[in-house]
Amino acid sequence: MKRFTLSLVAAAVLVLSFGCGESSSEPKPEPTEHVVDYVAWKAQLDTLMGHPVDFPEMMIIANEDCAKKDLGYLIALAMDSRNPKLLDVYRINFANVCPERSSEIEDIVSDLSD
């Protein structure tokens, strides 16, 4: 029984000493939270379109678009649209809602333009 207890204590010391694979001495990156400036976003869209947009509806659409995994089809349709401003609407929406994905739009535009 004594040997079993010593084995458990030794195992506990090893686990506590080495952790579970993550070094506690390494600093953890601070999570960055994107803050949306709704007034500026709406102003960008209004300026682009030349008239006030239905902003509540635009926010819903922008959030749905940002959640899509594959943007290729969406951007291809925008590029093929009769409305030349549609691609810029996507650019503005992504820059404001999910800026971490904005570069994907430019990559797709570049690929489709070749």
Description:
Helices cover 66% and strands 0% of the residues. The protein has 114 residues and is mainly α. It has a domain at 38-113. α3 (55-67) packs across α5 and α4 crosses α6 (102-113). The radius of gyration is 25 Å and the shape is globular.
In brief:
With 114 residues, this protein is mainly alpha-helical. It has helices at 2-18, 38-49, 55-67, 72-80, 86-97, 102-113. The chain has a domain at 38-113.
Q: Beta-strand level of the residues, as a percent range?
A: under 5%
Tell me the distance between the termini.
74 Å
Number of strands: 0
The residue-averaged pLDDT reads: 81
What shape does the CA trace take? globular
The number of helices is 6
- Rg, Cα atoms, Å: 25 Å
- The helix/strand order is HHHHHH
* Biggest β-sheet strands, sense, barrel: none
Helix coverage percent? 55-70%
Structural class: mainly alpha
Which runs of at least 5 residues are low in confidence (pLDDT < 50)? 1-22
In terms of topology, how is this protein built?
Elements: H1 2-18, H2 38-49, H3 55-67, H4 72-80, H5 86-97, H6 102-113
Helix pairs in contact: 2-5, 3-5, 4-6
Structural descriptors:
single chain; 114 residues; mainly alpha; globular
